């Protein structure tokens, strides 16, 4: 299936590795030009070289940190100079420290809110007018299965990402008539470095071996394993594509059936 992404211009946040990089690679493989972001310039440069060597969509990068309040303007100016405008925005952020919500330090909550919520809203607001004016746009926000079924020991992530659910749905209702869709993609346990960190944290918290924790977690997933980044990224590529024009205001799960609710 031709996803209709050839020549589209995409910005993928926090994309030097993990889910963000996977999404950037999948979109570029379909012919879109992508701007990837992150704090590690060497890692970004290596990722860009890998994407460009494949000969489909072209990649560029900008070193940026979502915790820096100047980042939204930096990204706006970089997109303007590199692309002239934007068709696809993938909002992806790192996760906050694990822990119980009842024990969360409120100063940490405030700081993570700025990084995970306010930065997403600010960056989106800068590109939305252009998308509406051109009559086409895709905004995909990567969250977590915890917004449906709260994940133990990830209280802060559950709380902050849930804020984006109401925001994304509201935006979907307000902008779809102008050809811009808003959706959310919810990963379950996908095999990234972040997942390794969480398994290690759970092992330390419970006094169990990491391998034991990982094996037990995979048994709880109906497909019996962790997901691959490519599986998640391919889902994202479809949602931001021309073929997904009637998918709007949705939360799509990519979790191997791990969420127990209907």
- End-to-end Cα distance, whole Å, is 29 Å
CATH architecture of the largest domain: 3-Layer(aba) Sandwich
Number of domains: 2
Helix content percent band: 40-55%
Largest sheet: number of strands, sense, barrel closure: 7 strands, parallel
Q: What is the residue-averaged pLDDT?
A: 95
What is the count of helical runs? 8
Q: How many strand units?
A: 7
Structural class: alpha/beta
Name the poorly predicted regions: none
CATH class of the largest domain: Alpha Beta
**Percent of residues in beta strands:** 5-15%
Written overview of the protein:
By secondary structure, this protein is α/β, with parallel strands linked by helices. It folds into two domains: 9-190 and 230-254, NAD(P)-binding Rossmann-like Domain (Rossmann fold), CATH 3.40.50; 192-226, no CATH class. The chain has eight helices and seven strands; from the N terminus they run E-H-E-H-E-H-E-H-E-H-E-H-H-H-E. It has a seven-stranded parallel beta sheet with strand order 3-2-1-4-5-6-7, with helices on both faces. Helix 4 packs parallel to helix 5. The longest helix is centred in the middle third of the chain and has 29 residues, at 106-134. It is globular and about 55 Å long. The mean pLDDT is 95. This is 3-oxoacyl-[acyl-carrier protein] reductase.
């Amino acid at each position: 299936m031709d996803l209709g992404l050839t020549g589209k211009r995409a910005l993928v946040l926090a994309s030097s590795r993990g889910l963000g990089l996977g999404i950037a690679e999948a979109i570029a493989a379909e012919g879109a030009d992508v701007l990837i972001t992150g704090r590690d310039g060497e890692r970004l440069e290596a990722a860009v070289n890998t994407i460009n060597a494949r000969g489909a969509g072209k990649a560029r990068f900008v070193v940026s940190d979502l915790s820096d309040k100047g980042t939204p303007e930096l990204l706006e100016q970089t997109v303007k100079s590199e692309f002239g405008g934007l068709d696809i925005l993938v909002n992806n952020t790192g996760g906050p420290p694990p822990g119980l919500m009842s024990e969360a330090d409120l100063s940490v909550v405030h700081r993570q809110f700025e990084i995970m919520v306010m930065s997403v809203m600010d960056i989106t607001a800068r590109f939305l007018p252009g998308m509406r004016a051109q009559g086409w746009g895709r905004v995909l926000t990567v969250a977590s299965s915890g917004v449906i079924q709260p994940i133990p020991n990830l209280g802060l992530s559950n709380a902050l990402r849930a804020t984006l659910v109401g925001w994304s749905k509201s935006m979907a209702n307000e902008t779809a008539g102008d050809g811009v869709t808003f959706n959310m993609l919810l990963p379950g346990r996908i095999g990234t470095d972040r997942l390794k960190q969480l398994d290690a944290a759970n092992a330390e918290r419970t006094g169990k071996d990491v391998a034991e924790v990982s094996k037990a977690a995979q048994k709880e997933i109906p497909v019996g394993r962790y997901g691959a980044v490519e599986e998640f990224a391919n889902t994202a590529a479809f949602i931001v594509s021309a073929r997904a024009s009637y998918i709007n205001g949705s939360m799509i799960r990519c979790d191997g059936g791990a969420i127990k609710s209907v």
